[in-house]
TrEMBL record:
Name assigned to this protein: Methyltransferase family protein
UniProt xrefs under InterPro entries: SAM-dependent_MTases_sf
Length: 218
């Protein structure tokens, strides 16, 4: 799976984050090499990032992030029809922003290792409702070829245990514009006592993916 380095700017758009959201306690799961924890903390948020890759040292993760960035750039150039170049105007801006976010991550993890916790869904080492908000980017629904719906259900139940609300983006596998099984999966969430709502967001990079799923325990 890719170890991505997204910025606070991308997180704001992907998850419809407001300044009020950034004043609370936030779980970034998985955090990857994102600069979000470092940047959001400057706005007053208390952020904890979680990723199984945090078992490795920061220098190794930085190298993983750079490799992911290069792979991503090559894929975007080879599959231009799968992407919408509005948030990023071109590949050069994409590379610059993602690289900056990666360097923010590496510096922040070195200075504040307590913000970065090694853990793996669907088993998180946190108390019930420890966070106001959990953010899950490019894991759930993105890897439906590897992670089945049972995993998705267990992961969302866990996210809504540790956070009052969770937001998930995007809602389609990589290379796709939609997930046909989403309506039935929402029924499974409802049966498990999870309130779920699909909301449009002001962000689209993977073509057709401009919605997030907002979930909480009913």
């Amino acid at each position: 799976m890719l170890v991505s380095s997204r910025s606070l700017g991308e997180y704001r758009r992907m998850f419809g984050l407001t300044d009020a959201d950034l004043s609370g306690t936030i779980l970034d799961c998985p955090g990857g090499c994102a600069g979000f924890a470092a940047e959001a903390t400057e706005f007053g948020a208390r952020v904890v990032a979680v990723d199984p890759e945090y078992a490795t040292d920061t220098a190794t993760m930085r190298e993983q992030g750079l490799r992911t960035l290069q792979r991503g750039m090559a894929y975007h150039l080879e599959h231009p029809d799968e992407y919408v170049w509005t948030y990023f105007t071109d590949v050069e801006q994409y590379q610059a922003e993602r690289t900056q976010a990666l360097e923010r991550f590496a510096a922040d993890r070195a200075a504040h290792p307590e913000r970065y916790v090694t853990a793996l869904l669907p088993d998180l080492p946190f108390q019930d409702r420890e966070f106001d908000l959990a953010l899950t980017s490019h894991l759930l629904f993105s890897y439906l070829d590897r992670l089945d719906e049972d995993f998705h259900l267990a992961a969302i139940v866990e996210l809504t245990r540790v956070a009052r609300q969770a937001r998930i983006f995007p809602l389609a596998p990589m290379g796709s514009q939609s997930y046909d099984g989403l309506p039935k999966f929402l029924e499974r969430l409802a049966a498990a006592g999870i309130d779920a709502e699909v909301k449009a967001v002001d962000y689209e990079f993977q073509r057709g993916c401009n919605e997030m799923l907002v979930v909480s325990q009913g």
